[in-house]
């Protein structure tokens, strides 16, 4: 085992880590936004649009992320979609995450008691303010654990972006290992690193969850 | 422009490669079921050491991306002097990764059984071993079936990563096909169709099982 390579390649790895975090945060935010729009369109949109979105959800959830990236990055230019690796990766991550987020939002909305919405309608609230003041706040709170959970899963999916040459952490580690022939050490450290990262994020997520849902916990 | 003949022609070689996708995910889940049962037994055991081992096993395998696990295994085996075919190494890695999720599925299913069931069995004088084999396990296995099909769908998709260590499954075959035809869009879309077909079948089985298990 040889550890000095990490010192030499430190700055490069750090940059890769920055891009990993960037991809994760952007992918989560954009995927959530798209997922929320899909969930709302599925609830209020016309029937053909709902069918179309359901097909989109099935297709994206039924195909591997790697194949989706290949279609986007290598197939895209054939239909005029010419993207660099990083934007292609971000777009891919957004598309990949959106149906999962949409389903999470849908179940969150379904968990809002019907009586709440009926009551809002009965006192003459406009449909838009029902969404904004009743459906979203109540639905988001009940969807929160699943949202946090899927965001953590997305952290791990970012390594797949290395295959289409997004210069994130995994990409830099592979580069380092091909230049120094330290494959085992490099991947070992990478595994430990991701373990730590995912554990840390899960812990933060749990704390965030208990904070937001504090009003739901019955005090004894 | 989009070439429909190329799209249709790529189905031939890709469908051949689908055997390996099915093999890796099928054997992966089989291995995952065995190891997952052992890990689940550790997690539920009275010994604190075994419980801690199970907790670390699950948290490590769920916290590390599968791609990293595959590469780690790929480079680790030669160093410790084990030489097995790449396919076997891939199946073992996928199986080990799946075991973490499967052990959690089973732990959840066993935990979801009403405690009254085993209490009643105890009250009529059943031996602890018999309670497990006759009361707890049969119900827990039936309850976990939909979740296991779900896990299998995830594995079919995860098996695309196995292409990175040189297994000629659908994704690898489509890379080769795209390189020879210079039509990546058609070929990768065909690959997506194959995965989608497999997973829609599995999802159908899952819904059917869920329907059966609900009775």
Automatic annotation (TrEMBL), chain B:
Primary residence: membrane
GO BP term, pick one: amino acid transport
Xref: Pfam families: BPD_transp_1
Keyword Ribonucleoprotein on entry: no
Molecular function per GO: transmembrane transporter activity
Source taxonomy: Bacteria, Pseudomonadati, Pseudomonadota, Alphaproteobacteria, Rhodobacterales
Name under which the protein is recorded: Amino acid ABC transporter
Mode of membrane association: Multi-pass membrane protein
